[in-house]
Amino acid sequence: MQLIEDVPSNGRIKEIDCEFRCRLTQPNKRDHSWDYSRRLRSLKKLVSHMRQTYFDIGDPRFEAFRSVESIANMFSVKDIRNSEHFSIPWDITNVRAALAMARINKSLGRIELAHEHARVGLRLCESAGALKGLFEEVLCTI
């Protein structure tokens, strides 16, 4: 189990290390970028648009992370199992979601739920063999 003391400081966490990550884009859009090579007048509009994008899209998405409990209940075993319906705004596969939920529930002492997520993850990770050991590690928890 990873303890709070084991979590790296903010300066050492990289985006790639984050399980839940996404770009702030309008619904049904994959990406959006802003042109920074504008004159000052245009930059003010750009910054205003960035700010509005955060409040319109980012803040509601981050609402799901307000508590450990809300994160732990983010994906049910059924949601993950139904991979064709697994659609969320974050860049995470159903296999990685199963692993995240297994680990989170394990750290909360919800061992049976952690095991359920791990078993589903194992069934789904045929092509992601490197993750099998991580699921088995959760299943070894009593």
Topology:
Elements: H1 40-62, H2 68-72, H3 77-81, H4 94-107, H5 111-124, H6 132-139
Helix pairs in contact: 4-5, 5-6
Describe this structure in words.
By secondary structure, the chain is mostly helical. The protein has 2 domains: 21-66, no CATH class; 68-142, no CATH class. The protein is built from 6 helices and no strands. The radius of gyration is 18 Å and the shape is elongated. The mean pLDDT is 78.
Globular, elongated, flat, extended or rod-shaped: what is the shape? elongated
Structural class: mainly alpha
Helix count, DSSP H or I runs of 4 or more residues: 6
Which stretches are low in confidence, meaning pLDDT under 50 for 5 or more residues running? none
- Sheet of most strands: none
**Portion in helices:** 40-55%
End-to-end distance, in Å?
12 Å
Whole-number count of domains: 2
Question: Would you list the SSEs in sequence order as H and E?
Answer: HHHHHH
In short:
Helices cover 49% and strands 0% of the residues.
Task: Tag the structure with descriptive keywords.
2 domains, 6 helices
